[in-house]
Write a structure and sequence with these properties.
By secondary structure, the chain is of the alpha+beta class. It folds into two domains: 34 residues; 119 residues, Nucleic acid-binding proteins (OB fold (Dihydrolipoamide Acetyltransferase, E2P)), CATH 2.40.50.140. The protein is built from four helices and seven strands. Strands 2-4-5-7-6 form a five-stranded mixed barrel. The radius of gyration is 22 Å and the shape is elongated.
Length: 155
């Protein structure tokens, strides 16, 4: 009888150890690939360190798009209070233009420039990424009646 209880305890402890190990592996893998959404103002306020994977969102600042000879596109993303210079090398979405909402995925360099690996633009006149819409509301730039994906503007 005692041996059976001891075997159950050993099996239970072994199962918990395996479950804990698997959980630790999953969290470690996710931790390296998770990117947090921030606005230009939050980068300044929170003092976000260079090298961290981020999603930054806001509006493409008017007059800021610059196409360099090496194929890099440089522009500024603004939340109407602060802005961040973004460099991106690749094909931009067809709907990318000044004054439009965008979300860029990438990392912050030490000089404060955001190096994007992916740029997403809104896909119709009513859509704005929910994170961007919320940031614009906090900045006082949002007009009621503008849609987000949840408001039926998405596809």
């Amino acid at each position: 009888m005692r041996l059976r209880k001891r075997q159950r305890l050993v099996i239970l402890l072994l199962a918990l150890l395996l479950l804990g190990g698997a959980t630790a592996l999953v969290l470690a893998a996710l931790g390296e690939n998770v990117s947090f959404f921030v606005t230009p103002g939050e980068i300044r306020e929170k003092g976000i360190q260079p090298g961290r994977s981020l999603r930054i969102g806001g509006l493409v600042a008017e007059g800021s798009v610059e196409r360099l000879p090496d194929g890099t596109v440089r522009f500024r993303i603004t939340d109407t209070v602060d802005d961040v210079v973004v460099e991106y090398r690749g094909l931009l979405p067809d709907l990318f233009r000044e004054g439009q909402g965008v979300v860029a995925l990438g990392t912050l360099r030490g000089d404060g420039t955001f190096v994007a690996s992916e740029v997403l633009a809104k896909h119709d006149e009513r859509y704005m990424p929910p994170e961007v819409a919320e940031a614009l509301k906090r900045a006082g730039y949002w007009e009621e009646g503008q849609g987000t994906a949840e408001a039926g503007g998405g596809r």
